[in-house]
């Protein structure tokens, strides 16, 4: 009987422990959700008082005060002064904004013949903005991985000078499809790269790159800063994002949160089509980026437009990219020398000018690209019926030629509100990728505060 009582007591302790753990988990989940509600109000670098944050989030003043204290201790938010009398009430109130000295927001963007690196604070202040002339087309992808590793190591010094001793996340914007693991690409056609785990290649390079960087600045290879740097790099998460998806996310944010003047309710579903380095795009459904189960959705450049067209490096025949990619149009239009002297953008404008004058081969090249774009877009629009269609790159200049007034009227009847030239034109990938990385950091605020691993997603709000 004594044994039975003891076992019963032990079982009771176990059950109590499980219930306690469940309550803690529930409490943690609720707290993390409350943190997200607060940070969502600050994501654009704005500052607000406790009263304002309490009103818009519905959190009690006591709960909000506790969250603000913990977030401030972690450096995620900072007090940035007090509101002037009458702005948010008759009294001066402490104002809070995202921090400038905690977790940096970092993106490297792979472009045609250069790599751009931007590092910002959580609040959006620029720490570093540099463009490196580096052409990796036709080169080994390992060369790119090593280049990125060296840039990351050099960035640690820049951050240290700003009093920032952490680097939990780095985004890589790349003109290639990205699988759902956010690490691997099936191929980067414009660079001649086959299937590769890009993140693994970069991670392999980081330790040696750090030692080389330390030696290059003549630091003590056995010093504590070496160990500290290796610790930061060991915990660093690197995430790949497709440049088309990043561009779409930037345009969506502009429409809904900046000066686009379109409410989220009127822009829940978006179709993005861009033609700069290659042909690509993306889709937002129900206000979230839709990438499909494998991460490959939205690749409009590889929709077929000609059954007997050119062979595409993706393995198909007659893809839109084989007639409408900028490089293809410049070559087919006989403007390669012109582009070498004046640049691709000028060459595409010259191609359009010559086409309007019925000068060959510019006319047939331009018409073939325009018709292919129209064919792919018409199918995508009929299938998705997006609220808005957004254009980026040179295709902006042919918007008025793609669809007739009758076509546009028919689309409006089906639910399409209209077509827009992208606010960022050719430069949407970087602001979009920065926004994605910032949102990932903020959605992981609770984990960062507890030193836990990040759970990464792209294309979802905080």
Automatic annotation (TrEMBL):
It comes from the Bacteria. Keywords: Membrane, Transmembrane, Transmembrane helix. Pfam families: ROK. The chain crosses the membrane at residues 376-396. Belongs to the ROK (NagC/XylR) family. This is ROK family protein. It comes from Bifidobacterium colobi. The lineage of its organism: Bacteria, Bacillati, Actinomycetota, Actinomycetes, Bifidobacteriales.
